[in-house]
Amino acid sequence: MNKKLKVAIAGYGKMGKIRAACVEAHPDLELVAICEINHKDSTTSIPVCQDYKLLMEYSPDVVFACTPNKYLPEIVSYFLNNQVNVFCEKPPGRNRKDVEMMLLAEQKNSAVRLKFGFNHRYHQAVLDAKSIIDQGRLGKILWLRGIYGKAGGNHFENGWRNKREWSGGGVLIDQGIHMVDLFRLFCGEFNEVKSFVNQSYWQMEVEDNVFALLRNKKGQIAMLHSSATQWKHKFLLDIYLEKGYITIAGILSSTRTYGTETLKIARCVYDEEGYPLPNPDETINYYEDDRSWKMEIDEFVNSITNKVPVQVGTCLEAYKTMLLIEEIYAADKPLKLENSLKGKLA
After folding, report:
1. Strand-pair partners of 33
2. Under 8 Å between Cβ of 183 and 222
3. How far apart are CA 213 and CA 145, in angstroms?
4. Could you tell me which residues come within 8 angstroms of residue 2 by beta carbon, excluding any fewer than 6 positions away?
5. What is the rounded CA–CA span in Å between residue 296 and residue 220?
6. Cys bridge to 33: 8, 23, 61, 172, which one at CB 3.0-4.6 A?
């Protein structure tokens, strides 16, 4: 590639700065402008504006949309309609209508690419687990169990991520959406949902805990706990199959607070009477280098330069994941035990 792609970033908070570092490290990308209404970083020499539409003055080939969820549909659609490729952070807006707006803009502008940052699909433990399952070495998946939790921290309830107008929801749409996306990666679409969506501790308008059960047409069941009251950062994905199990524990992140990323693999072993041994030998792989950020940018750049479809994080996949998130929210229907048992216990 001879000419570098010009990149602009809309939103220069935590994720915007992470993406800026990825762009500056990429040999085929050049960061030319930033939009940030609360810009206070004097260390960057990149031009900064306060209106995202002004980024067009720098003729970007690519825009990274890293703003709060509320603004993503408008920003993404604007640049797609101006024939600019867009990389959009997750979650893809606040609800299905937000994603539909971006999906329509993508369909109208097929010459440019749109990709969403479902970064966890690029983690090596996830890639290795998917490879093992696809090879059929341990048979078919029976069920999944996913836990994704964090400690909320001081003034947690006042952040924009916990304002429904800005985010669309709480810990489920902010963090649990990654686990929901991984459930879909391993098991496809789910058609039955049961859930409890709780405000367990934080006094705010969105949830701090979600407990959900999902089942698909193949009978595979996924259990989810997404929590802001874990009081410890935790990522755990158990995958139980016909002939063994796989566990992904820890996830390499920008903060490195979820611990070392590991992949445990175990095969069922039976005793002389045909009963499975309670503690089979496990093979454990350790991952110290997080290449997921680079890998997803590489795939996006390849899609643009070679004019091939986006493979991971498509708008259609984002839409399906958002539909499932909305189903989890909607499925929280309290059971009125006093009514259902009335007259039966007399």
Report:
1. 8
2. yes
3. 9
4. none
5. 29
6. 8
Of 113, 117, 237, the closest CA to residue 180 belongs to 237
| pTM score, whole prediction | 0.93
Count structural domains, the chain: 2
Tens of pLDDT, residue by residue over 15-59, are 999 999 999 999 999 999 999 998 766 567 899 999 999 999 999
CA distance 190 to 87: 27
Q: Same domain, yes or no, for 15 and 105?
A: yes
Confidence class for position 275, pLDDT limits 50, 70, 90: confident
pLDDT digits (tens, 9 = 90+) for 286-307: 999 999 999 999 999 999 999 9
> What residue numbers bound the domain in which 47 lies?
5-119+294-314
Closest CA to 268 of 279, 259, 257: 279
Residue keyed to tokens 């803009």? 105
CA 274 → CA 141, 268, 269, 270, 277, distances in Å?
21, 11, 9, 5, 9
Buried b (16+ CB within 10 A) or exposed e, 298-317: ebbbbbbeeeeebebbbbeb
Q: Is the peptide bond before 278 cis (omega within 30 degrees of 0)?
A: no
C-alpha span between 225 and 149 (Å, rounded): 8
For the chain, the first-to-last Cα distance in angstroms comes to: 79
| Residue 201 and residue 159 share a domain | yes
Q: Contact at 8 Å (CB) between 245 and 225?
A: no
Residues present in the chain in total? 346
Structure tokens at 184: 């879909």
Looking at the structure, tell me whether residues 272 and 300 fall in a common domain.
Answer: no
Cβ-Cβ contacts under 8 Å for 263 (sequence gap 6 or more)? 125, 128, 129, 246, 247, 248, 284, 285, 287
CA geometry: angle 96, 98, 101, nearest 5 deg: 110
